[in-house]
Amino acid sequence: MKKILNILFFLFLISCETVPVSERKQLILFPDSYINKQSVQAYQQFLNKANVVSKSNDQNKELQTIARNIEEAIHQYFVLENKSDPTKKYNWEINLVREDQVNAWAMPGGKIVFYTKILKIAENENGIATIMAHEMAHVVGRHGNERMSQALLINVATSVAQTATGTTLQGEAKTAYNLLRTYGIFLPFGRKQEAESDYLGLVFMTIAGYDPDETIKLWERMAKYTKEKGGAPPEFMNTHPSSENRIKNFKKWIPEVRNKYSAAKHNYFFKE
Ligand SMILES: [Zn+2]
């Protein structure tokens, strides 16, 4: 028993990695190659059953253009900061899905879904860029892997405790696939991960040339929509709790981020 706990503790020690930009330490137990492969499968399975909007649709074309711009900004960010780019091997993919949901989500490796209804609240390209950059930031921050690693650790620790006390294991096996669906899509990220994605997303969209002030307006629109719906929040708000704190953060960050990164595109090309 003690030996197993020691192994777990050791695993924990060697698995703490650092989030780019925020430098926050995080627990990563799964190799990205493995997670990303699982992610592709789960994503494909979702798309097979979804009402996917054609690539020739105008709204979808706009979405793809914004995604490419943010993707480019992410590369620029790592060049500017002189850091190795963890997204180099990512195969970003964005699909627009027709469904009565105000939602968007991202899975590890860069597999993203936007629902048509969230575009109404996004309202314009800066609003879409705000959501897109936020979702991409979850991917860059490896938040899916981190959530799954935390779940696995809790799961293994519980199993160890159950085995040690002689009780049998209950419930279905927690496969990586199940974890991915649960922690990649359906459960909200933690507060720290959300704040991290808000900040990183703001940086990425600013580098891409979108208006950082739109972040505040978007979250205000999201709050207004929630109020109009009689307090029942849109799906996106279940996983992205609205708070005045969020808007307060943006107000604090925008001047600094604008100052540091709004000329980044020019500097980047100048460097080349
Ligand atoms: Zn988020």
Plain-language structure description:
The protein is mainly alpha-helical. It has a domain at 61-142 and 190-271. It has helices at residues 2-14, 32-49, 58-80, 116-122, 125-140, 143-164, 176-186, 191-207, 214-228, 235-239, 244-261, 264-271; strands spanning 16-18, 25-27, 93-97, 104-107, 111-115. The strands form 2 sheets. It has a 3-stranded mixed sheet with strand order 3-5-4, with helices on both faces. It has a two-stranded antiparallel sheet with strand order 1-2. Helix 3 (58-80) crosses helix 12 (264-271). Mean pLDDT is 81; it is low at 164-174.
Q: What keyword list fits this structure?
A:
64% helix; 12 helices; 5 strands; mainly alpha; two-stranded antiparallel ribbon; binds zinc ion
Low-pLDDT parts are 164-174
Please describe the biggest sheet, giving its number of strands, its sense, and whether it closes into a barrel. Answer: 3 strands, mixed
Q: So how many helices?
A: 12
What is the general shape? globular
Find the structural class using helix and strand composition.
Answer: mainly alpha
Strand order of the largest sheet: 3-5-4
Measured between the Cα atoms of the first and last residue, the distance is 57 Å
Mean pLDDT: 81
Bound small molecules, deduplicated = zinc ion
Task: Give the SSE order as H and E letters.
Answer: HEEHHEEEHHHHHHHHH
Summary, kept brief:
The chain has twelve helices and five strands.
